[in-house]
Amino acid sequence: MIYTVTLNPSLDYVFTVPDFATGKTNRSREEALYPGGKGINVSLMLQHLGVHSTALGFVAGFTGQEITARLQDLGLTTDFLELPEGFSRINCKFRNLESTEINGSGPEIPERSFEELLHKLDGLLSGDVLFLCGSIPASLPRDTYARIAERLSGRGILLVADATGEVLRKVLPLHPFLVKPNRDELGAFFGVSIPDRASAIPYAKKLRDLGAANALVSLGGDGAVLAAADGRTYLAGAPRGKLVNAVGSGDAMVAGFAAGWQKTKDARQALRLSLACGSASAFCERFASREQVEALLPGIEVREA
């Protein structure tokens, strides 16, 4: 079974505003409203691949009810905890303004609510996959992911930590199954520049040395690097296509890797599916269909570094 955790889900209000100007009344030309959050994105991509998951996390108020309702309308299984106060955040995203966005803070998560989530996670079984994705809300400590990882340690649960900076640093000693920084996040983590695929290889290996079983680095148009649990390092170029919307493509990648691993237990095949999911999703408005993903697979070649 696969579970995703989104601690601070959102309603993403996406709109296009022609000739936007500050200090004036602007009117949108197009609008859309989506449930958002990195764990939710993973669940949506898995659903498109025909893989069932359960979305966990916290919701609050009328916006939280709308997030749950929209996800259930899309066919996702949800098991969110409702917070006693506040409302789930709304993120405003400008489609035509160079990815300009305003993200809300979200509700406060009291310790007792977090303990409820931990008790829920106690029900996971050996072989289950748990995704911990995205930033940690200000009301929770920075070691929240590490606390979850430590609680589940030794139970055979495959933990995917899509996190950055100090949050990632605290999780690595607990041996997550997969971490997936992008080029900028990897560079910031080690205080270096990552100009190309070759320069990412030693730092992907360092993440593995620090505790990750698999370290997958997404490099946009340069493809990806995987320092795998089998001790090998794999490289793959990105398939060609027209970029439409890169938002969520990294989440699609981690979903694809987990789905590929569950099916094949083969790092090469998991990397191929991961890259196909990320690229196909970047080539469309939201998340790619299974058919769009499968159309890219024949053109993705994985080689050992």
- Shape annotation: globular
Number of helices: 10
Low-confidence stretches: none
Mean pLDDT: 94
| Amount of beta strand | 15-25%
The total count of strands amounts to 15
Q: What is the annotated CATH architecture?
A: 3-Layer(aba) Sandwich
Question: By helix and strand content, what is the structural category?
Answer: alpha/beta
Please tell me about this protein's structure.
The protein is an alpha/beta fold. The protein has a single domain (38-60, 106-304), classed as UDP-N-acetylmuramoyl-L-alanine:D-glutamate ligase (3-Layer(aba) Sandwich), CATH 3.40.1190.20. Helices cover 36% and strands 22% of the residues. The chain contains ten helices and 15 strands. The chain has helices at 38-48, 61-73, 111-121, 144-152, 165-171, 183-190, 197-209, 249-264, 267-282, 290-296; strands spanning 2-6, 10-16, 30-36, 53-59, 77-78, 81-82, 89-94, 101-102, 129-133, 158-162, 178-179, 214-218, 224-227, 233-236, 302-304. The strands form two sheets. Strands 1, 4, 5, 6, 9, 10, 11, 12, 13, 14 and 15 form an eleven-stranded mixed β-sheet that branches. Strand 4, helix 2 and strand 5 (77-78) form a beta-alpha-beta unit. Helix 8 runs antiparallel to helix 9. The longest helix has 16 residues, at 249-264. The protein is globular and about 55 Å long. 44% of the residues are buried. The mean pLDDT is 94.
